[in-house]
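Exercise 3.2. Students should predict the tertiary structure of the chain below and write it as structure tokens, then compare their answer with the key that follows.

Predict this chain's 3D structure.
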Amino acid sequence: MTQHQGHCRTCPDKGTEHCQPESCSSPPILPPNELTEIKKVIGIMSGKGGVGKSSVSALLAVALKRSGFQVGILDADITGPSIPKLFGVIDRPEMDNKFLRPARTLTGIHIMSLNLLLPQEDDPVIWRGPILSGAVKQFWTDVAWGKLDYLILDMPPGTGDIPLTVMQSFPLQGLVLVSSPQDLAMMVVRKAMKMARIVNVPILGLVENMSYLVCPSCGESIRLFGASHVKEAAQKNGLPLLGSLPVDPHFTALADTGLVENYDGPLMKEIQPLVEFLQKTKEEGAW
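Answer key:
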């Protein structure tokens, strides 16, 4: 991990003695347990609900796995978890001594989600903020993730308790922000962007989801949400646009049946710039 275990995120350049409870108000970065060795932790965030963060998280995990990396997904959207559904995972995580073992998908992607611990997948999670934050911390400290190249955090919408907990307490190397094309969505995403900068978390770039739909008859690209504002927002904020993903009904159908790992359509091609960006910056040590 690039973040020293004894340091908080808001003052990483100061000595460990600075980041003690009596002298620093920011929480320390949580160290991994002895059964966890992860090279890069990447958050997928938006601030806006309904833009497809979980779909992007799943697609990125599948693409990284196909590129030969060991990958896990931590479903940090505690009250609206959808990662197990996308992958068709229903097995409960097993306890190994004092740690939980993450569930595995068909291709070996590691997954931890609260939905795997509920009696029924549609049972609601009616918890207050501190309990939610505590649960997402336990998905890091109490889960034996093993050796992974990438752990992807599928984060909930908004800029509240859970995103703040993740940003301040997890050894995040960076965030990928997801938006749909319209300015209404991008306005909310900018809130997440400002939050990340306030708490000193690097933003790796933007991904535009649901950019267009290709007509199956004529091949014309239909802009369902109108003209895109994401590229303009990326340029204004000095961030790369790491992908423009179309709407693909085939991907949606596979997601509904838990078979996203079988997908091999245009989305897989469009997610490759993000995969290559993560691999390149990892090799160059840019994080």
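Discussion points: The two ends are 10 Å apart (CA to CA). Residues 1-5, 14-18 have pLDDT under 50 and may be disordered.
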